[in-house]
């Protein structure tokens, strides 16, 4: 609440997941809508889901994924998109954004039957399950576009820190099948940071009454 009321603070984000003794929903609800630069406030998420309404902020990682597709010249309208994972902070808003760009969207989750077959039909695959190397090369339709959001630390004694980051997509297999694929690390991660800065800039403009 102190940060909410401080006019010198233009954005407040909550780093999830929170320690178990804290109520995640209560904390997220406490962030003022005008400073919710992560876009997780229920009103921001609700407005994202309703046609004709605009959220004050769009969640950073999904926003970064769409920006990557647009900047790469990927046609979204009318294409089949599969989003693997349905979390509130990544999978769900990504599927909503793809629908806003008129893709035909299927969400694959833990209870989906024939996940591989469903994914094989996609022109655009967004992997956000948090399971390293879940998506193999034979899950990808030749020429498909692959956005890998997953970042899981895996033990690797050969690395300086003793681990390396691995995506949800087996990059070595998928890179020869996909037309475009994001690496892990260095793909979606920097875009998430960039979109957070963009949201914060928009918040500051709004609070300071800049056009």
Mean pLDDT: 95
Largest sheet data: 5 strands, parallel
Main sheet strand line-up: 2-1-3-4-7
Low-confidence stretches: none
Helix count, DSSP H or I runs of 4 or more residues:
8
DSSP strand tally: 7
Amino-to-carboxy terminus distance: 27 Å
Given helix and strand content, the structural type is: alpha/beta
Can you tag this structure with a few keywords?
single chain; 211 residues; alpha/beta; five-stranded parallel sheet; 8 helices; 13% strand; globular; multifunctional enzyme; THF_DH/CycHdrlase_NAD-bd_dom
How would you describe this protein?
The chain has 211 residues and is α/β, with parallel strands linked by helices. 34% of the residues lie in helices and 13% in strands. It has 8 helices and 7 strands; from the N terminus they run ααααβαβαββββαβα. The strands form 2 sheets. The chain has a 5-stranded parallel sheet with strand order 2-1-3-4-7. Helix 5 links the parallel strand 1 and strand 2 (104-108).
Briefly summarize what is shown.
Its EC number is 3.5.4.9. This protein has eight helices and seven strands. It has 211 residues and is of the alpha/beta class.
């Amino acid at each position: 609440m102190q940060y909410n009321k401080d006019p010198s603070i233009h954005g407040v984000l909550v780093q999830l997941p929170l320690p178990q003794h804290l109520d995640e929903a209560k904390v997220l609800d406490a962030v003022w809508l005008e400073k919710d630069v992560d876009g997780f406030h229920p009103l921001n998420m609700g407005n994202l889901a309703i046609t004709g309404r605009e959220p004050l902020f769009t969640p950073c990682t999904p926003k970064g994924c769409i920006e990557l597709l647009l900047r790469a010249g990927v046609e979204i309208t009318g294409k089949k998109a599969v989003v693997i994972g349905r979390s509130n902070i990544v999978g769900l808003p990504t599927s909503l954004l793809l629908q806003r760009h008129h893709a035909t969207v299927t969400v694959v989750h833990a209870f989906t039957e024939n996940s591989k077959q469903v994914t094989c039909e996609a022109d655009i695959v967004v992997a956000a399950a948090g399971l390293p190397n879940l998506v193999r090369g034979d899950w990808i339709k030749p020429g498909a576009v692959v956005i890998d959001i997953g970042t899981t630390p895996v033990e690797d004694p050969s690395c300086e820190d003793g681990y390396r980051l691995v995506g949800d997509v087996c990059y070595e297999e998928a890179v020869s099948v996909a037309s475009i694929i994001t690496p892990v690390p260095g793909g979606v991660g920097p875009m998430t940071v960039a979109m957070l800065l963009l949201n914060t800039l928009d918040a500051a403009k709004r609070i300071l009454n800049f056009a």
